[in-house]
Amino acid sequence: MKSLPLVAAFFLGFTLCNARQLSQGEIHQIGRWIFFNETSGKEELMIFWNTHEDFPSFGIGHCIWHLQGQELVHEEQFPALCTYLKKHGVKLPGWLSKALLKGAPWKNREAFLRDKKRPAELLEVLKDTIDLQARFMVERVHQKIPDIINAAPDEVRKKLQSHCKLLEQTPMGTYALVDYLNFKGSGLNRLADGRRQYWGLLQVLLAIPETVTKETILKAFTVSAAKVLTRRVEESAPDYKLLKFFHGWMKRVSTYSDSLLLW
After folding, report:
1. Which of 45, 88, 174, 209: disulfide with 39, CB 3.0–4.6 Å?
2. What is the residue extent of each domain of the chain?
């Protein structure tokens, strides 16, 4: 990633300091929406290991935790979440504090499912910290936005900055940014074959028209996200193996402009 001159870096960094300050109630609601998106609102699913994945996921956002010695394309978030919780006075189980230094303490999914003690202890921590987890995710998106904008071509950075500013001025816009970043990533990381991930938040922001307003930004973000994910399914041809996820993906991004979620 290219380094920015000091003035440009300051300009892009105002997203974090000028973002509308959310109330505790708004953060709570954002957390609840994400919790429902990831777990259908089931607390027991905050401890999860998908049969199609090589790692476990935890919390309302299903934050990934790599195994010991594991190197994956998927960004690991769970250790950072634990650090955040500890910083805010949450007491972590002794085994968890030690394991964070090395990686998830299970060899595979089968060993994870056999372990009844540690996942149960972790679930109790996660059930008591839903609002803190939501705040962690909100702060994370504000921290990521300057990097996402910096990764875009010079000529569109101002447009992306404007889009993010509009979105960050409302709880619904913040929810859209937070959920999509958590759902499909930043769009900055490389895939195993060296190609850049092309369905992340960067790609969604790039596809939003320049002429959007505060009245239309949520609709534009929703449509852009749907187009990016539709393209991903299309490019899974000839077997279209991602089509099985299509309905769920469209249902999820449609919440970004759903008036029923507004207060």
Report:
1. 45
2. 6-22+153-261, 25-130
